Amino acid sequence: MSTTTSTPIASFAVTASATLLNRSRQSLPMGVSSGMRRVGAPQPLFFERGEGPYYFDADGHKLLDYTLAWGPLILGNSHPAVITAVTDQLARGFAFGAQHRGEIELAELVTSVVPGAERVIFSNTGSEAVQAALRLARSFTGRPLFIKFEGHYHGWFNNVLVSYRPQAGDAIEPLPTCGGQPPHEFADTRVVPWNDLPALERMLETHAGRVAAVLTEPLLANGGSCEPEPGFLQGVIELSRKHGAVSVFDEVITGFRLALGGAREYFSLQPDLSVYAKAMAAGFCVAAVAGRREIFDVLEDGRTIHAGTYNGNPVNLAAATATIRTLAQPGTFDHMHAHGRAVRQAIELAAARRGIPLVTSGSGPVFSVHFGLAERPRNYRDTLRADATRAAAFRLALLHNGIYTLPDGRWYVGAVHGPDELALAETAIEAAMAVV
Ligand SMILES: Cc1ncc(COP(=O)(O)O)c(C=O)c1O
Which of 335, 339, 334, 326 is nearest to 421 (CA)? Predict the structure, then answer.
């Protein structure tokens, strides 16, 4: 699926993308559909087509993609198994607003591959599913508060978009991330630094009997792909249990990526609930909350509700089932981890050869590059010391060499990144490192 033609691209023209951005701005604020896509250097690109791990932009560039559309495209674009599943379902109906076999099939698949997942509910985006998990936890415990960690992203809703990008001088306290976040909407959110069990314990003790949930990304993918220190995630689960709170892993990034069973399988841990989206459906809109049966009883007995017109949409669910079955083929995760390790190593060696200080952090299928750091970051605050200027120059130089990466230095590796792609990446990394 993955042979390529020409890279590097000597001069990276964005004439067509610039024209489209100007037109887009007339009707779309910022000219983009998600604030995260409002990047500079050189400007938001417009894509005409995607195939496997490649994008084709409006200016005729063929770009090797290590963004996976911010994570979902774990099988690349237009994977034949997903196309077949989706087109078969399209011919049998787009939506029912009622029950169908595909829901049972996917629920059985998820509960069979995710360790400790006894029940599952479906929604459409990670943001929604996080809210569903919080509601389940609050209804189950009868408590109002939840604890999140600094630098973690759990979607764009006001109660969780809190202390996501604080600055070095900011106190560690719940801080809004953007305008339009009135304090009462995050009054029940508490924030502690990550990889710091004593801080978590203090917060749980301060609010004894009032904390419904402790919510964490198991690998801090959104804050520099920081890795959990040995015992930290286990400690989160145990402290939550000790204080009667529900432990929630936000596996929107790690789910179906670190392993088929996500962080639960990768770290051999079972929190009370986990939230999934992104890689679960290879680019289609499916999210899920899975976990202990007892917690889902609050839906069975009517203590609370979970709703949504598009929940369990048959077309999206068909994509998810095909994705998980494809990912379940032997060797898939070993392959992604090996490819990710090789790319990381290429970056580290290219930097070391030139005396450029740099570290990488994360896991094979999702990792981050930090210029200017001597040690892997432990938490979000450590990443603030990285050299953002050099990182931006590297990203731009990679683009000039045919490689498309995310603006925050995070790389996503998918199942369709093969040896050809690795060779392209290694050449581009070498060329880009030479000019930063
Ligand atoms: C860990 C995590 N949680 C939640 C979300 C929100 O998911 P969505 O963008 O599908 O609403 C994201 C999105 O990037 C995420 O990375």
Answer: 339
**CA 250 / ligand 1 centre spacing (Å):** 8
pLDDT of 288-334, one tens digit each? 999 999 999 999 999 999 999 999 999 999 999 999 999 999 999 99
Catalytic residue positions, numbered: 153, 250, 278
Give CA–CA dist 340/64, Å, rounded: 14
Ligand 1 centroid distance, CA of 278 (Å): 8
Atom of ligand 1 nearest to the CA of 130: 4
Cα 127 to ligand 1 centre (Å): 6
If we measure between CA atoms, which residue out of 352, 400, 408 comes closest to residue 383? 408
The DSSP letter of residue 346 is: H
> Is 115 exposed, middle or buried, given 0-12, 13-18 or 19+ CB atoms closer than 10 A?
middle
CB atoms within 10 A of CB 116: 17
Task: Write the DSSP symbol of residue 122.
Answer: E
CB of 404 closer than 8 Å to CB of 65? yes
C-alpha–C-alpha distance, residues 159 and 188, integer Å: 8
CA distance 210 to 188: 10
CA 76, 78, 81, 85 torsion: positive or negative? positive
At position 397, the amino acid (one-letter code) is: A
Instruction: Record the pTM.
Output: 0.96
Residues 139-198 have pLDDT tens digits of 999 999 999 999 999 999 999 999 999 999 999 999 999 999 999 999 999 999 999 999
Closest CA relative to residue 290, chosen from 69, 420, 154, 114? 114
Q: Which two tokens mark 66?
A: 């290590």
DSSP structural state of residue 164:
S
Spatial CA neighbour of 212 closest among 197, 196, 190: 190
Q: What residues are in contact with ligand 1 under a 6 Å CB criterion?
A: 125-127, 130, 153-155, 217, 222, 250, 252-253, 277
Q: What is the greatest pairwise CA distance in the chain? A: 63
Query: What integer best gives the mean pLDDT of the chain?
Result: 96
Residue bearing the CA closest to ligand 1, atom 8: 126
| DSSP secondary structure, 363-410, as one string | ETTEEEEEET-SS--SSHHHHTTS-HHHHHHHHHHHHHTTEE--TTSE
Residue 43: both structure tokens together: 């400007």
Joined tokens for residue 394: 């590297």
> Alpha-carbon distance 168 to 296, whole Å?
40
